[in-house]
Amino acid sequence: MNNLVSIIMPCYNNEATIGKAVESVQRQTYIEWELLITDDGSIDGSVELIERLASSDKRIKFFSLQKNGGAGVARNNSIKNAVGRYIAFLDADDSWDPEKLDCQITFMKENGVALTYSAYQKIKGGDLAGVVMPPEKITYKELIYSNVIGCLTAVYDSHLLGKRYMPIIRKRQDMGLWLDILKDIEVARATPGVLGYYNCDSGMTKNKLSVLGYQWRFYRDVVELGVVRSLWVFCVYAFRGCRKSMV
Which of 76, 155, 175, 176 shows the smallest number of beta carbons within 10 Å? Predict the structure, then answer.
């Protein structure tokens, strides 16, 4: 049986952080993994650093895109080239607990779960901040109001679901993927424990308020909700997002 985990990592100008992210993968107690890094047109020293990392560890597979297409495009390129049963996600500025994959894959096997996630620790300025605690389970109708699945914690089983890709949009690609999966399964479930470390100092995190307009277009154009339904869901999403940012 294929127990390989394919770890999907996009990179764009992450020279300062990707080394720590990769190290957290290499420190996993679960040893059956491959790491697929797709660089999305970086202009810093990311490419050279990734090439050195890949040359010293054959489990690391490196791909480079000539034109910047966004994190969703980079992730999809890695998913396309993945050969593992389990598809996991880790951005180049985040990191994992050493037992993350062990805990999660065991949980998925024992419970027959196709999509899982976990709690994660927020990091601000290099210091520990609040812990984001997701619900024990989530349905499509619940997730649409708030993306409680941290991308750095998510794993899906491609044997049960087939390969699933992110929508080709600049933001909220992960939410689009989780919703697509949840159309076909009853629930996604949380693996117990705090298994990831989320860097709150990235540009995307600091500019969350500026993407509310994009969230509206996400509901209208990607999820294809009507105007009235979109307005209600958007208002609930914005309220929950503000409350979550205070954690």
Answer: 176
